[in-house]
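[09:14] KT: can someone run the structure on this one? pasting the chain below
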Amino acid sequence: MRGLDPRGSRDPAVPVVSPAGNRGKGERGSSGQPSPRLAAPRDTADLHQELCLYTLGNLIVESEAVRSKLLPQGIVPALAACIQSPHQTVLEALGYALSQLLQAKEAPEKIIPSVLGSALPQHMLQLLQPGPKLNPGVAVEFAWCLHYIICSQVNNALLITHGALSTLGLLLLDLAGAVQRSEDTGLELLVCPVLRCLSNLLTEPAVDAVGGQMELRDERVVASLFILLQFFLQKQPSLLPEGLWLLNNLTANSPSFCTSLLSLDLIEPLLRLLPVSNVVSVLVLTVLCNVAEKGPAYCWHLWPGPLLSSLLDTLVFSDTEVVGQTLELLQLLFLYRPETAQAFLQQSGLQALKRHEEEAQLQDRVHALQQTALHG
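[09:31] RB: done, structure tokens below
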């Protein structure tokens, strides 16, 4: 069995694999201190509305008691009315206040159902539509809001029917284009929640029911994701697991996304990420397992090539999760391309396996792989 579920919810509040949850708080500073983004000159009413929203956001952070008083007074309908404002500064303040509300521990039971029942989700998705009207500050706030809603798993099918996958997929393409045009490292502020939203939405049964994966336009999404991975590698390595988890969820149950990975010659760029960290290595190997398990035709494209020598290198790792995922991938290769086993033996593969014969978590799999390599 694989070291990771082939497709699962992701909680990238920390760069490790874990179930979906209330994440992102530590990264985006939900301390209740709004950043000073006031522009002048502006209409007094707009300024008043903006300040009220930031004040509300700060109050929401204070305690559950405060929030329990705001809810009966109609804070959700009030926020829904504000989202129709034409002023970007008001919208950004609204995104801040709403994000604080959505992070509350009682949000899944008491707040998010009301939010989903309002006009807020559709307006949020409209504000995330790529194009000249997209405001980065507003988009960042509402991308995080969408992320908190998705992690609650209250009714993600509703978001999918509203076109969330299509909107986020197009935004991902737009962000990849922006990365190519600019060295602006501030882009990760928006890229991160977009990747998380897409990753978690892809775990929903409703995706398959409505053909949601097709909305992501296979090759363009995969190509854009690799542009972002290269950007992360150079500028923000801590975000590599975010992109790889999305790639994992894209390829897990979709032969078409695996085909895109192969047709775009992206296996070697993927292999070059293996040395970055153990977390990255496990995710890269999991994606490769997703491809290999699709059968002989897919394994034919994986070998010959640099894959086998890369796997021999990962067998030197001391991390049991990395080694375990390597063993899983080798088993798939030996199953669907028996010639790989002979090449493995010729390249001192058995000696590499001996390093892990005494490790309790790996013993059975090491022994199984040795038998497969020797006897087929």
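[09:33] KT: thanks! The chain is about 65% helix and 0% strand.
[09:34] RB: yep, looked fine to me
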